[in-house]
Amino acid sequence: MRYSLKQLAVFDAVADFGSVSMAADKLALTQSATSMSLAQLEKMLGRPLFERQGKQMALTHWGMWLRPKAKTLLQDAQRIEMGFYDQHLLSGVIRLGASQTPAEHLVPDLISIIDSDFPEIRIELGVRRTQAVISGVLDYQYDLGIIEGRCDDNRIQQEVWCRDHLIVVAAAHHPYAKHSEVSLAQLEQAKWVLREPGSGTRRTFDSCVHNLMTELNVWREYEHVPVLRSLVAQGSYLSCLPYLDVEKHIESGHLVALNVPELKMERTLSFVWRADRAENPLADCIRREGLRMMKGRPLVM
Q1: CA distance 243 to 220
Q2: By C-alpha distance, which of 300, 265, 275 is closest to 152?
Q3: Which pLDDT tens digit goes with each residue over 107-158?
Q4: What is the mean pLDDT of the chain?
């Protein structure tokens, strides 16, 4: 290729400011060097990229075509440079606490990315319910947490990672499985097996049904999702679980998602950390790579 990243950076800066002199200041170049780089780029490409309107520079049709492509190249070059810089500098152990749903379905992909791109970082993972993760962050057991739902404690800082939702499930042989819709009155008559109080899933469910149903027949409460799935699939119970935890079982036909129009149980999965903590490059790296991992993906569900 005949053009250089420096020439593309000059082009991008002039497009940003509409001025050669301001672009030169941004890039810490002399005005003559900036003008020369731009002239060389236009000569190599054989097309004018700007129209000179007095002291202002306006993009031509060719310049507008080039600009997004130049930005992509420059951003990729910056990521390459930062990646090598981070790989060299970032090392050590980070203690990560995660609640059950993200730990099972999202954290493994995140750890794989960190292992590949930042091989000197070691992640110690603790899997606990949401409230225990928050307490662990506050008690300095974890440098960073991943929780289900919101945390309203002002000692905690929170950043949304992605979103998911809960659904009511039954066995394929359950009487409600044949219904196109299930009413709240029918839900009140059913036997339920649910996550234990204090879990993110249970808090979201309780909050949603609080003003809709007077009393539920909660038969059992367990911490482990596989136990709840098996009880529902083999018995006459209902449960409310994250879609991520039951997706494959619904596709296989072992479980059925019930349509309850009144229940909209969306929630967030978020990173949390102490609001007063000192700078932590490892935690910042985990958050940054986690957000990048989800970028461009559809929301979890």
Answers
A1: 20
A2: 275
A3: 999 999 999 888 888 999 999 989 999 999 998 889 999 998 889 899 999 9
A4: 89
The CA–CA distances, whole Å, from 74 to 12, 45, 65 equal: 9, 18, 15
pLDDT digits (tens, 9 = 90+) for 107-117: 999 999 999 88
- Residue 301, pLDDT > 50, answer no
Residue 60: exposure state from Cβ atoms within 10 A (0-12, 13-18, ≥19): middle
Question: How many Cα atoms are found within 13 Å in the side-chain-facing hemisphere of 290?
Answer: 25
* HSE (side-chain half, CA atoms, 13 Å) at 192: 19
Rounded distance, CA 42 to CA 40, Å? 6
Positive/negative CA dihedral, 116, 140, 100, 163 = negative
- Token pair, residue 21, equals 């002199």
**What confidence score (pLDDT) does residue 83 get?**
63
- What is the rounded distance in angstroms from the CA atom of residue 261 to the CA atom of residue 180? 10
Burial 86-120 (b: 16+ CB within 10 A, else e): beeebeeebbbbbbbbbbbbbbeebbeebeeebee
Its pTM surpasses 0.70:
no
Total residue count of the chain as it appears in this document:
301
Helix, strand, coil percentages (3-state) for the chain, rounded to 5, are: 50, 25, 30
Catalogue all structural domains in the chain, each as residue range(s) with its CATH number: 5-89 (1.10.10.10), 92-162+268-294 (3.40.190.10), 164-265 (3.40.190.290)
